[in-house]
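Q: What changes when nicotinamide-adenine-dinucleotide is included in the input?
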Amino acid sequence: MTSDRTGSSGGPPLRVGIIGLGGGASAMIPKFAGNSNYHVAAAADIDQGQLDAFSSRYEGKTFLTAEELCDSTAVDVIYIATPNQFHTEHVLMALNGGKHVLVEKPMTLNLEDADAMIDAAERNDRRLGVNVKHSFAPRVRKVRDMVTSGELGRLRMLNWWYYNNWLYSPRTVEELTPELGGGVPWRQGPHMFDILRTIGGGMVRSVRAMTGVWDESRPVAGSYAGFLEFDNGTVSNAVYSGNDHFSSREFTHRVDEGDAWPDRPEHAKARRALIEAGDKDTEIAMKRARRFGGQAREEQTTRAQSRPSAWLLGGPFVASFDLGDVRWTTEGLTVYGQTEEYDIPMSTDLDGREGIVQEFHNAVLEGRPPVNDGRWGKATVEVLLSLFQSSEQRKEVYLSHQTPTIDLAA
Ligand SMILES: NC(=O)c1ccc[n+]([C@@H]2O[C@H](COP(=O)([O-])OP(=O)(O)OC[C@H]3O[C@@H](n4cnc5c(N)ncnc54)[C@H](O)[C@@H]3O)[C@@H](O)[C@H]2O)c1
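A: The predicted holo structure follows.
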């Protein structure tokens, strides 16, 4: 490995290459670039325009195919942020090319492919991690600490409602095709269920859920309502609607006090913009503007940087323990105990991406799987699959591939 920089761990930085310079990658690349243990060394994308945008900001090599990056000796780690249907192909290619891999969520779309990735990581003695960044957010970790410390007794319930405009934001064809990993359960469920598993201990016993296709012009599940029971008896209600009617940020932000956190919810703004766009080509162009270097992406990044926990606070979340309820707020956490209510202020600078990038580096350096490894990612995929199965069969589904939460060292 050659580098003229030294990471904070003392060794040379890991050279990271990116496959897929879309919206997901746009938020991650600055986190690699801002961590002295990494050096942004290369990128691959089938769109030359995206590669040009990358080159205008980073010195790394660029490739028009994923294969070339996977074969390149210029990188040690590959971060894969291509659309969901390509994850398996690209992960296997990168691992077989001798690279460590951090892949976007969902890890893949079925359990067999997840097994193939886990096997390839072991066979090649490389690290495999799933980029469940919001599970590393400080608020999530703090609630998890409360579970493990027992300071409020046993965790009993996790309830989370999330209403937004996902389905009517500009979307690619694959984002609106269920078989390609499109729709709210595949695209947003990985965050919510990974966070619930992280806090609840990981071991989901059963799932009862309904997913819904309510608009045939966008024929993909735009919502889900799920009931999860963990092995230890903790239960969870998880509701998500991306139908651009109600915004549950009205429950988590002080909208009336002029708190625009990060921007004021505006009823049906996304639906109106789509109607104005008029055709699919214009919609795709709007989506493209949200990729790396695009105008809409720049605006979104500026807003997100001002409020890093915006994703978590998309709807009201309450964790109920024997001795109190805890909810996330714009300032941190509020604890409603037996006789007193108090706030726990949390950092407003971190959103989880910093933590996951650092954990992956530590795992590579220490030669151990990251806490968000392939088996963990596969277990979250099993929960996602069970949403669809339960909905189709209209019955409770029992799970068998769950893994326990591995808590990060303090
Ligand atoms: N959009 C987000 O804000 C976001 C956030 C977090 C995670 N993610 C995840 O990131 C992944 C990508 O989603 P997105 O919304 O960024 O997609 P996107 O459509 O915006 O971008 C995908 C990029 O990959 C490129 N690409 C497509 N096929 C390729 C191939 N075969 N080889 C190389 N490059 C290829 C495209 O040209 C494009 O630049 C998904 O798994 C998604 O779940 C997205």
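Observations recorded in class: The mean pLDDT is 93.
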